[in-house]
Specification:
Blueprint lengths: L7 E3 L14 H11 L1 E2 L2 E2 L4 E3 L2 H4 L6 H14 L20 E4 H6 L8 H11 L1 E4 L1
Parallel strand pairs: 1-4, 5-6
Antiparallel strand pairs: 2-3
Amino acid sequence: PLSTVLGGVISPVHDGYKKSSLISSQHRLAMARLSVTRDNTRDNNWIHVSDWEIKQEAWTRTKKVLDSYTSLANNERVEWLPNLGSVDQGPITFKLLCGGDLLESFAVPGLWNEEDLESIVRDYGIVVIS
């Protein structure tokens, strides 16, 4: 189906993800916020930064993050969501934007929950930058 892009959300992963090359989530969050800021003001109306993932008690599976963001977008107003337009535009959905390395990890046996992968691809969709 056709989609209209209303905005983007940068969502740093929780420290519980345990990837050795990642700096702390607080530093990644600060860098993400700086990346959408100009002259000490939030100047980017299109890309927002969410701290939702890093505030969870532990690492959250990607599908659950997408499910939670969808629920928040449809039921609450949170400051890190872009202007979502009107209900006339249809339901709000999220796409997983990732690098080729994450896409390649889908093929690693046992790394991803198969039902999660199916849902991510079927219900959300993936945009890969490589």
